[in-house]
Design brief:
By secondary structure, this protein is an alpha/beta fold. 15% of the residues lie in helices and 24% in strands.
Amino acid sequence: MADETPKDDAAPKKAPAPAPAAAKKEEPAPPKPPSEPGQYGQFLKDHGVASERLFDSCGIETIALDGDQLHTALRLLKNSSEIKLDLLLTVTGVDSTETFDSVYHLWAYDHNNELVIKVRVPKAGVAADHLPCVPSISNIWPAANWHERETYDLVGIRYSAHPYPRRILNPWDWDGHPLRKDYKQPVDGLNDKNPHSMR
């Protein structure tokens, strides 16, 4: 059997010249929220509760409410036969650039639909030695109890009228809230640089 290695009679090829550096593209502006209220925002408006429509994340209607209207809005959304958002999926917290946000994800079994509600507390209105405060909804959805405790523990949002406002993951005497932008990790035996650590 003959060796069928192809012969390379052609002269060596030159590497292509590098492309000129592309001009920096401007970052696109963040998407603007829809100007008209969505289904849930309109429902609340019709019942006297003001809300602000935010950019819909993943096609899910997202609104912002004032903390003083949170209970009224949630009772309307939960108990209305036409809306019936009857499941609280999560309560989470976000340390945004200018606000602390308490975020609620609600689900309607009957309509297979979801709503995200944000209660924003401006950082400028929170004194340095205080924590942002939002009304607890554990009297409306008992499952919110542990969600709110976790959000307090990690993000530092207090929930007024919570039945047991204690940390849930960190020790009760832990200093700070680990998911806050201003959090400083403590230096102790557990957090010192270890020669075997990848950090």
